[in-house]
């Protein structure tokens, strides 16, 4: 029997993309649950999803004091109630078509499937360089702490076995980086080394509509996930940005 699946999508003011994403996912995956975990958008996101009239596509308005992309994803995983969860951005930089291949990996027995970007130069040179450097830093941190590493630890396109990761999230809730963007890093950091990991390559695209929410704070919160030395690097970076 095929496993049930929920697609968890963190959103904030994505009215230009949210309906198109909901329709694209529903067309490709009729049986998937679609969960938009919304950080109190000030646009029409909620109304637009309600107008679709799809009982298996929901928008969850989160508490204002608990805002954060990672927090949105972690809450979605805890509340999805399906065999598998998947995370994808709402701006179409992650191709919805990749979720089908990731689902197949989960059905084959993977605990975690990671979307790996084929051409990271599509990020632009500055973001590529930052992604490359941090991936090395994070992999070294995970390796020396006896954890599984990833070819693309910065990836936001992931799938996981819900019963494997719900306990990880609950037991380590107070130590998770809620305001950061790198959910995968914390899932690897707080899981044991016995994880069965599969990878699926995909082409990283351009944002369809609207403005990116990435800012320098992302760098700081990401380094904060890598122990004392990472926190030191985050403080150094913050000081350099102020100069």
Largest sheet: 7 strands, mixed
Question: What multimeric state do the chains show?
Answer: single chain
Which H/E pattern describes the elements?
A: EHEHEHEHEHEHHEHH
Q: Based on CA inertia axes, which overall geometry fits? A: globular
Distance between the termini: 58 Å
Spans of at least 5 consecutive residues with low confidence: none
Beta content comes to 15-25%
* Gyration radius, rounded: 17 Å
- Count of strand segments: 7
What proportion of the residues is helical, as a percent range?
A: 40-55%
**Overall pLDDT score:** 85
Count of helical regions: 9
Structural class: alpha/beta
| Strand arrangement in the largest pleated sheet | 3-2-1-4-6-5-7
Feature tags:
243 residues; alpha/beta; 7-stranded mixed beta sheet; 9 helices; globular
Question: Secondary-structure blueprint of this entry?
Answer:
Layout: E1 5-11, H1 18-28, E2 33-38, H2 45-52, E3 57-61, H3 69-79, E4 84-87, H4 98-107, E5 112-117, H5 125-144, E6 158-161, H6 162-171, H7 183-189, E7 197-202, H8 217-223, H9 227-242
Parallel strand pairs: 1-2, 1-4, 2-3, 5-7
Antiparallel strand pairs: 4-6, 5-6
Helix pairs in contact: 8-9
Characterization of this structure:
The protein has 243 residues and is α/β, with parallel strands linked by helices. It is built from 9 helices and 7 strands. The chain has helices at residues 18-28, 45-52, 69-79, 98-107, 125-144, 162-171, 183-189, 217-223, 227-242, and strands spanning 5-11, 33-38, 57-61, 84-87, 112-117, 158-161, 197-202. It has a 7-stranded mixed sheet, with helices on both faces. Helix 8 (217-223) packs antiparallel against helix 9. The protein is globular, with a radius of gyration of 17 Å. The N and C termini lie far apart (58 Å).
């Amino acid at each position: 029997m095929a496993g049930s699946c929920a697609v968890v999508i963190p959103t904030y003011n994505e009215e230009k993309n949210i309906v198109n994403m909901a329709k694209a996912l529903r067309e490709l995956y009729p049986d998937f649950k679609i969960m938009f975990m919304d950080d109190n958008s000030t646009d029409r996101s909620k109304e637009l999803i309600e107008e679709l009239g799809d009982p298996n596509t929901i928008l969850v308005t989160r508490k204002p004091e608990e805002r954060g992309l990672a927090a949105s994803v972690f809450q979605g995983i805890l509340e999805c109630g399906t065999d598998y969860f998947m995370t994808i951005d709402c701006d179409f930089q992650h191709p919805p078509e990749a979720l089908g291949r990731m689902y197949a990996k989960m059905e084959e027995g993977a605990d975690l499937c990671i979307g790996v970007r084929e051409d990271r130069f599509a990020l632009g040179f500055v973001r590529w360089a930052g992604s490359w450097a941090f991936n090395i830093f994070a992999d070294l941190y995970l390796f020396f702490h006896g954890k599984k590493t990833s070819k693309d630890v910065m990836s936001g396109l992931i799938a996981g076995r819900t019963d494997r990761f719900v306990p990880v999230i609950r037991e380590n809730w107070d130590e998770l980086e809620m305001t950061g963007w790198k959910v995968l890093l914390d899932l690897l950091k707080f899981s044991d080394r016995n994880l069965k990991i599969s990878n699926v390559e995909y082409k990283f695209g351009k944002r369809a509509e609207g403005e990116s929410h990435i800012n320098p704070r992302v760098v700081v919160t990401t380094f904060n996930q890598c122990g004392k030395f990472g926190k030191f690097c985050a403080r150094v970076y913050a000081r350099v940005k102020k100069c």
